[in-house]
Amino acid sequence: MGDRYAIILAAGKGSRMKSPRAKVLHEVGGRTMLGWSVALAADLGCKKTVVVVGPDAPDVAAAAGRLVGAANVCVQLAQSGTANAVGAAAAALGGLKGDVIVLYADTPLIPVEAGERAFAELSRGASICVLGFEAAAPGRYGRLVMAVDGSLDAIVEANDASAEQLRIGFCNSGVMAAPVALMFELLGEVRNDNAKGEYYLTDLVALARGRGLSAAAARCEERDVLGVNSQGELAAAEAAFQEAARTRMLREGVTMTAPETVWLSHDTRLAPGATVEPHVVFGADVHVEAGAVIRAFSHLEGARVGQDALVGPYARLRTGARIGRQAHIGNFVEVKNVKVGEGAKANHLSYLGDGEIGAGANIGAGTIFCNYDGFFKYLTLVGENAFVGSNTSLVAPVSVGAGSYIGSGSVITEDVAPGALALGRGRQAGKEGWATDFRVSQSALKAAGSKPEGAV
Ligand code: UD1
Ligand code: CA
């Protein structure tokens, strides 16, 4: 295999999104559409990926720079067509040996196998290859005009097509592969004498044929090349991603009773043998190990859940939550940047932020790690097998020794020694008969139609 390169077109205005955010920075499965294209190029083994951006899109240029390096971001000065856009990448790629693939940044769900098929046609002798699909509604798509020998003759844009050509259902996805040198050489010959007055990348096919070179169309499914132009199409792409991701998880051995209610991210990792109950949302960067159960209505992001752990229902795991083997995180418990040791339990109504909980520790209902003073954050360390009574505030920085006990309702501001009991609350007082006497005196006042001083 020769070297591979990618050009990602991201210079479109995306005005149909009707959003102040650039189209290609909208997310599918928790990753920007631009990010999907860059990831595909990487999965295809491209040595260098160039992103072509518009002149008035600093946010797209910045995002592209973070993904591929600023030197690989090229600006297309005027949006005069896809051929002109690819031409903008010449400065970054011209002169390199190998093959290049053109991708659109608004087409996020192309499987790596589809890209491989386009490159494969080049190895089989085609000089240029596009990915084509049978469109349910061909509409505005460019039509692939095939030769009798099964090779590709030309691509005709809908605006320039004859009535007969418009009846063709085999359409251009926009993905095109060719040797770098040929691509840039042919680009120089593209003219804009067409219905839209644009420089069409699709003209490269006829130009190659005119030189006696062969062109090919590799097939893919329509759902693989769904382009996003509107919020409705973005939602449709998200639905397609979710459907595919759930199917993959089930196939790999994850148990989901209602997969259609589970929301996954592009990088969600659920081990075979993990169970996910209905209505669970996985934000970015979550790994769950075998035997763990994520119960209904939980929300996780940036978290690791160990073997046989139990999370939820209604749990919230945030970035840096590291839930150990067989640990339990119960309802209305929020965990952020805390390592929870093996078999530790926090079953009800708690905020555990910044710290560590040792193996076997028990965190009572209503425990709060007071981690923030309005300026800085501090750690709370709870030792192994410690027992933190309900409704305790642990004011960080503080450490609770292994095996210690904390009385319920305590506000703990000082370190607790291992094996000790700590109480940080007012002592209980009692007055015998007080309540009975009070009732008698107050009902007498009421019966007499008067009130104590100050009553309203
Ligand atoms: C293009 C193809 C068409 C194909 C369709 C698939 C051409 C001439 N036509 O049509 O055959 O069926 O995609 O969706 O290529 N872009 C730039 N700079 C430009 C123009 C476009 O970066 O000057 C980018 C856009 O942001 C977009 C992509 O190129 O990501 C495609 O451009 P668009 O104008 O949407 O092409 P279509 O008319 O849809
Ligand atoms: Ca388009």
* Class per helix and strand makeup: alpha/beta
* SS field, number of helical segments: 10
- Give the helix proportion (percent range): 10-25%
- Radius of gyration of CA atoms, rounded to a whole number: 31 Å
- What small ligands are held by the chains? uridine-diphosphate-N-acetylglucosamine, calcium ion
Number of strands: 33
N- to C-terminal separation? 89 Å
Major sheet, described briefly? Answer: 19 strands, parallel
CA-based shape: elongated
Uncertain segments: none
The overall average pLDDT, rounded, is 97
What share of residues are in beta strands?
A: 25-35%
Q: Which short descriptors sum up this protein?
A:
alpha/beta; single chain; 456 residues; binds calcium ion; 33 strands; 19-stranded parallel sheet
Provide a quick synopsis of the model.
This protein has 456 residues and is of the alpha/beta class. It is built from 10 helices and 33 strands.
Structure description:
The protein has a 19-stranded parallel beta sheet that branches. Strands 5-4-1-6-10-7-11 form a seven-stranded mixed beta sheet. Strands 26-29-32 form a three-stranded parallel beta sheet, with no helix packed on it. It is of the alpha/beta class and 456 residues long. The protein contains ten helices and 33 strands. The longest helix has 22 residues, at 231-252. 22% of the residues lie in helices and 28% in strands. Residues 9, 11-12, 52, 76, 79-82, 84-85, 104-106, 141-142, 155, 157, 171-174, 200-202, 227 line the site of uridine-diphosphate-N-acetylglucosamine (UD1).
